[in-house]
Amino acid sequence: MPTCKKCQEAFFVSQEEQAFLGKIAFTFGATVIHPPEPVYCPTCRMLLRTCNRNERFFYKNASKKSGKELISLYAKEPPWGVPFAIYEQKEWESDAFDPLEYGRDFDFSRPFFDQFSELLKTVPRMALCTIGNENCTYTTGTGYCRNCYLINSSEYCEDCYYGKLLQSSKDCVDCSYTYNSELCYECFSIHKCYHCTALLFSQNCQDCLYSSNLNACKHCSLCTNLHQKEYYFLNEPLEKMEYEKKIAEFWGSAQKMREMREKLMSLREQQPQRYANIVNSQHCTGDFIENSKNCLDCYDVNESEDCRYVQVGVQVKDNFDCSNMYIKPELCYETLGTIEVFNTAYSIFIFHSQNLLYCDYCYHSSDCFGCSGLTRKKYCIFNKQYTKGEYEELVPKIIEHMQKTGEWGLFFPPRYAPFAYNESLASEYVPLSKDEVLQRGFLWRDRKDEIPNVEKVIPGKRLPDRIANVPDDVLNWAIECEETGRPFQIIKPELRFYRSQNLPLPRLHPDVRYDRRLALRNPRTLYARTCAKCEKEIQTAFSPGRSETIYCEECYLKEVY
Ligand SMILES: [Zn+2]
Ligand SMILES: [Zn+2]
Asked: For residue 554, how far is its CA from the centre of ligand 2 (angstroms)?
C-alpha cells in the first residue's frame, strides 16, 4: 500500500482505479499519455481540489477594467500576495476581452506550477461565478435565481436566504440541501416539502416541525421515522385540536423553539439511523446517492455510474477524484467544477470542453494545456496559440519536464490556491485548525468582521422573545451572536419572512447557523461496521466510536414501515 505524501496515511489504489487511469488518455500525434497513479490519499486529493472553491465569503473589490466597485469571491488584498485581476461578468464575456493577450512561452528552466500561477494572476477572472440571476449580488455558484441572499450552489430559486444547495425552491430561509420546496425554515436535506420548520432528512411533507426522517407526513411535530402520518406529536397520534394546542404552546417563542430543537436532537440520537442515504442504486457506497450504479466512495451523486471519490455529481460517468461535476461529464480525473466535459484532468471550472490538462476557467475549448480564461480555443499552451503540429510536439515535452520536477500528476499546489483553506469548501468537508492548515501547506486567513455602520448593537439574548415585540427599526441594528459575539444584521425581506411566519429573530450569526446545519451530515469518510440488528457488514460514514444505533437498509426499513 502506498503512503500519502501529504498526511503519511496508507491508502490503496484499486483495480478499477488502475483500469480507469488506462482508459483516460491524452493523444499528441503518435504519443498517448495517461495520468499516473496518485501519490496522495483520497481525502488529501479531495481537499487539494476543493480548496479552490469559495462558496460563502465575499469581498469588496474593483474591476481591473473599469475600476468600478463590485462584490467578489476574491479579496482585493489577499494576505498571501498578489491579488487576482477581476472583471465584471459582462466585461469578461465581452469580445473586448482577449485571453490570448496574456499568452507566454513555457520556460523549461523553471517549474510548471510557478509559471502557471503567474499566468493566473494576470488573466482576468469573473468577480463571481453566477449565471442568469436577478437581484442576487451576494450569491455564488448560482444560476437563474431571483431575490436571493447568501445562498450558494443553487439553481432556480426565489426569495431564499442563507443556505447551500437549494434547487427550485421558494421562500426558504436557513435551509440547506433543499429541493423543490417552499416556505421552509431551518430545514436540512428535504425534498418536495411545504411550510415546514426544522425538518430534517424528509420528503413530501407539509406543516411538519422539529422532526426527522419523515415521508409523506402532515402536521407532525417532534417525530422521527414516520411514513404517511397526520397529526402526530412525539410519534403518537393526537386529535387535531389537541395537536394545535401543543403547537401554539411553543410557536413564536425563541426560548421554547430552542427547547424544541434540543428535544429533536436528543430524539435523533435515540432512534436507529440508516447506515447511508442510498436510494434506487446498485453497487454504490458513500452517502446521498440516488439512481446510480457502481459509484464507490461517492457523496451527493445522482444518475451516475462507474465513479469513485466524487463529491457532488449529476449525470456523471467514469469520473474518479472529481468534485462539483454537472451535466454529463465523462472520463474526468482530478477536476473541480464542470458542466458537460469530456476527457479532462487536473483542471478547475471547465465548461462544455474536452481534452484539457491543467486548465482553469475555460469554456467551449478543446486540446489545451496550462491555460486560463479561454473561450472557443484549441491547441493553446499558456494562453498562446499553436498549430496542431506544434501543440502535439510541445505538450509531451512539458509533461516530461514536469516528470523531472515531480509535478506531473499532481493537482495545483495549495500555496497557489485563490482562497484560504478556511474560506473554501475544503474546510466544510474537513475542518482544520490554523496550525494544521499551515502545516499541510494550505493558506489561512484570519477573519475580522467589519463593524457594521448601525445605530446600536444588541446582544442576541436581549432580543424580544417574540417577533411582535420587535420594531422595524431592528433593520438599523446589529445583533451580537450568542455563541461567537460576531455582529450580524437582518435584511428587510428576511424580517418580512419572520413576521409573516410569526418566527422569532435568530440569535446566532448566519455562519453559525450554516455550520450547525452542515454538522447534521456525516463527514465524507467510510468505515466498515456491522448492522446493530442483523450484524450484516455495512460501509457507513458513521465512525465506529459514535453513540447512535446504525441499521442496514433492510433492518432500517422494517423499523420504519
Ligand atoms: Zn493524505
Ligand atoms: Zn441489518
From this structure: 6
Range of the domain at 549: 527-560
Ligand nearest to the CA of 8: 1
Q: Indicate whether 5 belongs to any domain.
A: no
Averaged pLDDT of the chain: 96
Considering the domain architecture, whether residues 501 and 541 belong to the same structural domain is answered as: no
Listed residue (176, 184, 193, 188) closest to 55, CA to CA: 176
Instruction: Measure 440 CA to ligand 1 centroid, in angstroms.
Output: 10
Question: What is the predicted pLDDT for the residue at 116?
Answer: 98
Give the pLDDT confidence score for residue 439 in this predicted structure.
94
| 540 & 510 share domain | no
Query: What's the structural domain count of the chain?
Result: 2
Q: What is the dihedral of CA 52, 54, 55, 59, to 10 degrees?
A: -160
Task: State whether 470 and 514 are in the same domain.
Answer: yes
What is the tens place of the pLDDT at every residue in 303-338?
Answer: 999 999 999 999 999 999 999 998 899 999 999 999
Ligand with minimal distance to 42 CA: 1
Q: How far is the CA of 530 from the centre of ligand 1 (A)?
A: 26
**Residue 263: what pLDDT?**
97
3-state secondary structure 475-509: HHEEEECCCCCCEECCCHHHHHHHHHHCCCCCCCC
Those residues whose beta carbon sits under 5 angstroms from the ion ligand 2 are 531, 533-534, 536, 552, 555
Residues 511, 531 within the same domain = no
- The pLDDT of residue 271 is 87
473 belongs to a structural domain: yes
CA of 555 to the centre of ligand 2 (A): 4
Same domain? 510 vs 531: no
User: Per the domain annotation, does 505 fall within a domain?
Assistant: yes
Q: Find the ligand nearest to 532 CA.
A: 2
Nearest ligand to the C-alpha atom of residue 45 = 1
Q: Which residues of the chain have pLDDT under 50?
A: none
Virtual CA dihedral for 153, 159, 163, 167, nearest 10 degrees? -40
CA-to-CA separations, 240 to 232, 493, 518, in angstroms, rounded: 9, 32, 34
Of all ligands present, the nearest one to the C-alpha of 531 is 2
Q: Is 7 part of any domain?
A: no
What's the CA gap between 211 and 261, in Å, rounded?
9
- Rounded to 5 degrees, what are φ and ψ at 115? -70, -40
What pLDDT, on a 0 to 100 scale, did the predictor assign at position 455?
Answer: 85
Looking at the CA of 559, which ligand is closest? 2
Domain finish residue from 518, 536, 551 = 518
End-to-end CA distance of the chain: 43
Cα of 545 vs centre of ligand 2, distance in Å, is 19
pLDDT of residue 561: 65
Ligand 1 mean position to 4 CA, how many Å?
5
